[in-house]
Amino acid sequence: MLKRLQGPYDDAYRAVPCFWGTEPSSLVREILPTLSGPLKVLDLGCGEGKNAAAFAHLGCEVDAVDCSLIAIQNGKRTFPSPNIKWHHEDVLHFECSEAMYDVVICYGLLHCLDSCEEIERMLARVHRTTRSVGINVVCTFNDRSHDLSAHPGFLPTLLPHAWYLAKYSHWQLVHSSDADLHETHPHNGIPHHHSMTRILARRL
Hints:
alpha/beta; Rossmann fold
């Protein structure tokens, strides 16, 4: 499990509220127009909640879970929606029933776990809690190419893109990509890059 109930981005959340911005991420933007009716959504590793807020705006009931209390506090101030239930918890210990959610989001979460075994266990839980024809949204560092100069002391768990694809071999892949992300974080101004696996999959 996470060694302490604190996120690797806490310094950034202290320095820059809405560190990740307020617009939903690319895969979330892709699926939002395809959804209808109030859905039940789980956002694991929600950060400050920009993806949770996008679903809440559609009338979805969202459980937003993060180990960073600072991120949760920032999110509550920025996105004060009655449709979001915030949980300051270790994602590996968050209680959720089988086939409970229509959409489960793991955006920037999996590489923050401590080992391949924890990631595998997390994905197994994600799969179990996703309803039939439900959707998983996954975005994570993979093992190809990284410049971690903007993240001193952060040691992500890096697994191959193909490893993640194999975990969704029995799902319908709506989107999958392995591409470099170039960015500069607002709290330190250091340009850097990450190789990112992005998966949008529907449970059959």
